[in-house]
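User: Hi! I have a protein structure encoded as tokens and I'd like to know what sequence might fold into it. I'm fairly new to this, so please keep things simple.
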């Protein structure tokens, strides 16, 4: 049962104030965080902690990101209603739903098939109709659906994959944690020309690594 009661909503408002106090100023981002019931994305054993500003395990060695991190990356993207956004690393689907609440048309890729199948089913139940979810290799992006206004990578990479650079519109933004090991620099790269990017760094974060998918199969569901 997908219950979102007054208690959940009250806890969500407190979470929003917490991340506002940590420096998130974009009211559209804060509103989206307030709209998405994070407790539904977690195993029932985590329900009491769902609105703490912490990451949690979701299985298969993956996590649902800390809400502040979700808000921080989303704020850097400068989302406008109608933006076509590619997300690399669907995970639980929480970040995709935040983008959807902001009016973005979301295309999201997950490389772990059991997680993809679980999240695909779950997002259908939540009625997020402007999210398209794919099973495949995030390093390759989605060339058939390019170009994108914004690209968000939710895993740490040693550098910005060339395929993702190519799939971004001129003037578009890619936000990605870049680095070796468990700590990465949060990078905002704005595409100036086909070969030139304006690179800005926004502090240190810790993400699971961005891995290539050795299975070449790709599936897509328009939900």
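Assistant: Happy to help. Inverse folding works backwards from shape to sequence: for each of the 223 positions I chose a residue that suits the local structure. Here it is:
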């Amino acid at each position: 049962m997908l219950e979102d009661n007054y208690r959940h909503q009250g806890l969500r408002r407190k979470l929003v104030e917490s991340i506002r106090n940590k420096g998130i100023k974009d009211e559209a981002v804060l509103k989206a965080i307030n709209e998405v019931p994070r407790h539904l994305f977690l195993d029932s054993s985590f329900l009491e902690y769902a609105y703490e500003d912490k990451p949690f395990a979701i299985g298969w060695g993956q996590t649902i990101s800390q809400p502040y991190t979700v808000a921080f990356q989303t704020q850097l993207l400068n989302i406008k209603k109608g933006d076509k956004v590619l997300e690399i690393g669907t995970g639980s689907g929480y970040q995709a739903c935040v983008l959807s609440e902001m009016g973005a048309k979301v295309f999201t890729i997950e490389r772990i098939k059991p997680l993809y199948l679980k999240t695909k089913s779950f997002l259908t139940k939540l009625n997020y109709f402007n999210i398209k979810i794919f099973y495949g290799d995030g390093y390759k992006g989605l060339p058939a659906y390019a170009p994108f206004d914004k690209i968000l990578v939710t895993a740490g990479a040693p550098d910005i994959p060339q395929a993702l650079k190519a799939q971004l519109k001129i003037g578009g933004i890619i936000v990605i944690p870049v680095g070796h090991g468990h700590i990465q620099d949060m990078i905002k790269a704005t595409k100036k020309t086909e070969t030139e990017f304006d690179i800005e760094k926004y502090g240190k974060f810790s993400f699971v690594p961005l891995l290539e998918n050795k299975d070449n199969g790709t599936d897509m569901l328009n939900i």
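A useful reference point when you look it over: The chain has one domain: 6-222. Feel free to ask if any position seems puzzling.
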